[in-house]
Amino acid sequence: MAKGIPRKKWRGEFSRWFDWVLEEAGIYDYGRYPVKGMGIWLPYGFQIRRRVIELIRSVLDSAGHEEVLFPLLIPETLLRKESEHIRGFEGEVYWVTHGGKEPLDIRLALRPTSETSISYMESFWIKSYKQLPKKYYQIVSIFRYETKATRPLIRLREVTTFKEAHTVHDSFEDADRQVAEAIELYKKIFDELGIPYVISRRPEWDKFAGALYTVAFDTVMPDGRTLQIGTVHHLGQNFTVPFEIRIQLRDETLDYAWQTSYGLSDRVVATLIAIHGDDRGAVIPPNVAPIQVVIVPIPAGSEEDRRLVNEYVEKVAKTLREAGIRIHVDDRDDVRPGRKFYEWEARGVPLRIEIGPREARSNKVMVARRDTFEKIELGLEGLPEKLRELMEDVRKNLRERAWNWLRTRVKRVESIEEAKRILEEERGIVELPWCGREECGLKLEELVDAGVLGSPLERPDWVKGKRCPVCGRPSVTSIRLAKKY
Ligand code: A5A
Ligand code: ZN
Fold first, then answer.
1. Within this chain, do residues 461 and 335 fall inside the same structural domain, yes or no?
2. Max CA-CA distance within the chain?
3. 330/291 Cα distance (integer angstroms)
4. Is there a domain that residue 346 lies in?
5. DSSP code of residue 324
6. C-alpha triplet 421, 196, 288: angle, nearest 5°
7. What is the edge-to-edge ordering of all strands in the sheet holding 410-412?
8. Chain centre to alpha carbon of residue 22
9. At what angle do helices 172-193 and 43-61 cross, to 10 degrees?
10. Is 282 domain-assigned?
11. Which of 276, 305, 321 is the last residue of a domain?
């Protein structure tokens, strides 16, 4: 391996490894564009992103969501209508103050999220319970002037792949049910991508600005820090009251509607790359891989052998292409096979086929798996199906590997000292018994020197009979702490 390439698993080097892989694999160019927190999706990365978006779309569409597209600009008057919301976002808003040389009467915000603009329009559209539930979503750029350290795809100021869903309901309970549905949909999306997660109800003091409550998906990055990869919010009537989304109910009375919203971002692509990758680069799950199989001809000595190999490569390529497998033939003749292997490994192509004179003569191919480096010889007969099976195996293996790893990173502890030591030495997530009081949660953050992720949605059995390590009261649930991104 070339010198100077950072090692993913070495703590302290993950960030460098991540920057390296984004560049080496041609995914995202970050740090050169002269606006902080904004990067460029490169052609190969764009293809991955596109497939991830397609997956998100198909999951949402099949659950009755409708895609829409709202304006990027939100007038200050709208953004200020819900007081908690603006309090939460005030420090992160980019403002448009001029049109050419003219100062604007009302400043326009680059949307940091779209609850306000969508609620405003919903007040014209939605009048009756008969129209509900209504589920909209859009996939757009949002802008947040983040003050924490920005990082490629992980903490951006222009979030270019923001999927925000916004739903409307005729009761608190139906919005509650929608939260549960959204959680199931997100599980499906993350499972398809092999991204493991922990689901927590965020504490009161760390919920979305304007929500009744927030449920978050977090994952553990290779360096042991956690990353929030998606959130689902019950918005109650917090936006429908100021925006006057009043509906006629089944019993003919009028009431304000109820809402939820839930979001995903570029972080989905970031975690996909961070979690499955290794010291050789990215490992892209076959279902979203722009190239599923790369074919590398192995140069032959004689003119005759060369022709034989080329013809056979063409034949294999044609068969696979016609079967709908996304292939690429790397027939560059000025690049050695070793170099090609290195490049395609960095890009994370799940399967590589090597074809030399031996394979051409025996009607076989040599297949190398990107996830395990295992080499398998396959005959031409039924090759597309066999490759499909292999790809499914790669996908499952990636998912299992990632889940097994995540499980080892979640530890139950009962004392503050132990929690602190584990997060200091190993990072990951610690779970402690908790009395449920905010006072103790905040104290824990301080004493353990970590952030709170929240509590499991259901009270866990193991905390029964255990006490809150801060106040000694009986625990009612557990609380999760981690060093967060
Ligand atoms: N309107 C709701 C859905 C909302 O905005 N929720 S949120 O603020 O929690 O954002 C949704 C998700 O977007 C987060 O869970 C996080 O995964 C991602 N996200 C938020 N800020 C981000 C940033 N600066 N860069 C990348 N991803 C971000
Ligand atoms: Zn307590």
1. no
2. 87
3. 11
4. yes
5. T
6. 140
7. 410-412, 429-434, 477-482, 451-454
8. 15
9. 140
10. no
11. 276
Based on the domain organization, do 271 and 343 belong to the same domain? no
Q: Write the pLDDT tens digit of every residue in 111-161.
A: 999 999 999 999 999 999 999 999 999 999 999 999 999 999 999 999 999
> pLDDT tens-digit profile of 78-99?
999 999 999 999 999 999 999 9
- Contact of 297 with 313, CB cutoff 8 Å: yes
Q: Do residues 143 and 110 lie in contact, with contact meaning Cβ atoms separated by under 8 Å?
A: yes
One domain, residues 261 and 131 = yes
CB atoms within 10 A of CB 462: 12
Total-model pTM: 0.97
DSSP β-ladder status, 293-297 and 258-264: unpaired
Closest ligand 1 atom, CA of 146? Answer: 24
Is 113 near ligand 1, meaning CB less than 6 Å away? Answer: yes
Ligand 1 probe mutation, 228, 229, 268, most atoms within 8 A of CB: 228
Measured between alpha carbons, how far is 364 from 78 in angstroms, rounded to an integer? 65
Probe residue for ligand 1, chosen from 60, 84, 94, 159 as the CB with the greatest number of ligand atoms within 8 Å: 159
Residue with tokens 């959130």: 231
Total domain count, the chain: 3
Q: Tell me which residue range forms the domain holding 475.
A: 410-482
Q: Is 209 in the same domain as 353?
A: no
